[in-house]
């Protein structure tokens, strides 16, 4: 059996080679690394003996889900990366699904919480639970979903990072923002950022806007995180900023992919010597400002929230403001 080695980061890395097959993984504890190596060794030997494929394991479920289900989703690429990452974690991958227990999944949850934020662990639990549920409901590989009984970590506090004026100016300078025509990709990122601050649209939504979607007083979003199309009203400033993108791209307003937008924004922020906020925080900043002007239900429609409680984080009017409306 291979021996785990401690890394400078405090994690444990293990490498194994069995019958010509090599594999490796990094884990939060030595025990997790040894457990993974034992499971992987069992699987490799089963494959070599021709017994693999007679039973359906958790690894089988992960791979079939990546091949058949993930491609039907908007976030296919990122989800497949996460599914592959599961195979390097302390999961009983070679266990048949009908032998998978709540205790197995709880142990995996705890190993993840030791090195990851609650929000990340919650997202991973949701994805893994979906894999097992599809295997139960559609493939008939398992009778009950053991993830249903695994206690979920407490939801992390809602992020309310507001980007201040100094930070906005610093990022815009770093991107070479000006008042003339858009001449560079960095300038397109700058204007995309400004529209995000004005409207609260998400990065993916902004990148998907076509010129045909731009109306005199609003933008029509055909694809969104919630899967529901919506109209986003435009302020005068937002309309002028969008108009300055004319001539940059014939079809797409900003001519950007979400990955490019995120990468260039992060680099610009770092060049400006700033930290602690992301492009998505422009949405929080917009919601905080716009909540002072709109009724809570209008705020939900504009931002695409299905539940009123999502807006209540931002909608906190003073008693004096409410009194003036009575």
From TrEMBL:
Q: Which GO terms describe its molecular function?
A: DNA binding
Q: Does the keyword field hold Phosphoprotein?
A: no
Domain named Tyr recombinase: which ranges?
158-326
Q: Which PROSITE patterns match?
A: TYR_RECOMBINASE
Q: What CDD domains does the entry give?
A: INT_Rci_Hp1_C
Which keywords describe this protein according to UniProt?
A: DNA integration, DNA recombination, DNA-binding
Task: Give one Pfam hit by family name.
Answer: Phage_integrase
Listed under GO biological process in this entry are: DNA integration; DNA recombination
SUPFAM superfamilies noted in UniProt: DNA breaking-rejoining enzymes (SSF56349)
- What InterPro entries does the record point to? DNA_brk_join_enz, Integrase-like_cat_sf, Integrase_catalytic, Integrase_recombinase_N, Tyrosine_recombinase_XerCD
* Name listed for the protein in its UniProt record: Site-specific integrase
Look up and give the organism this protein is from: Hydrogenophaga crocea
């Amino acid at each position: 059996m291979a021996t785990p080695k401690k890394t400078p980061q405090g994690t444990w890395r293990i490498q194994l080679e069995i019958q010509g097959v090599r594999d490796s993984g990094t884990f939060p504890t030595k025990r997790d690394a040894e457990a993974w190596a034992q499971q992987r060794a069992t699987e490799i030997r089963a494959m070599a003996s021709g017994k693999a494929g007679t039973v359906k394991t958790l690894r089988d479920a992960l791979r079939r889900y990546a091949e058949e289900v993930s491609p039907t989703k908007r976030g296919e690429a990122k989800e497949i990366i996460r599914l592959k990452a599961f195979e390097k974690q302390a999961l009983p991958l070679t266990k048949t699904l009908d032998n998978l227990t709540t205790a197995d999944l709880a142990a995996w949850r705890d190993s993840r919480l030791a090195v990851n934020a609650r929000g990340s662990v919650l997202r991973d639990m949701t994805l893994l639970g979906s894999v097992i549920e599809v295997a139960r409901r559609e493939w008939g590989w398992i009778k009950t979903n053991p993830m249903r009984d695994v206690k979920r970590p407490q939801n992390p506090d809602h992020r309310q990072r507001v980007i201040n004026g100094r930070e906005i100016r610093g990022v815009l300078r770093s991107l070479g923002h000006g008042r003339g025509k858009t001449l560079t990709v960095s300038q397109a990122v700058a204007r995309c950022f400004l529209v995000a601050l004005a409207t609260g649209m998400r990065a993916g939504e902004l990148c998907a806007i076509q010129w045909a979607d731009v109306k005199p007083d609003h933008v029509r979003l055909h694809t969104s995180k919630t899967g529901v199309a919506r109209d986003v009203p435009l302020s005068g400033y937002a309309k002028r900023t969008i108009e300055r993108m004319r001539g940059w791209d014939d079809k797409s307003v900003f001519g950007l992919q979400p990955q490019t937008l995120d990468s260039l924004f992060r680099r610009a922020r770092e060049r400006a010597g700033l930290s602690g906020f992301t492009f998505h925080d422009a949405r929080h900043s917009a919601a905080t400002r716009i909540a002072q002007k709109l009724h809570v239900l209008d705020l939900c429609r504009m931002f695409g929230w299905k539940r009123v409680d999502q807006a209540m984080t931002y909608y906190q009017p003073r008693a004096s403001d409410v009194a003036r409306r009575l």
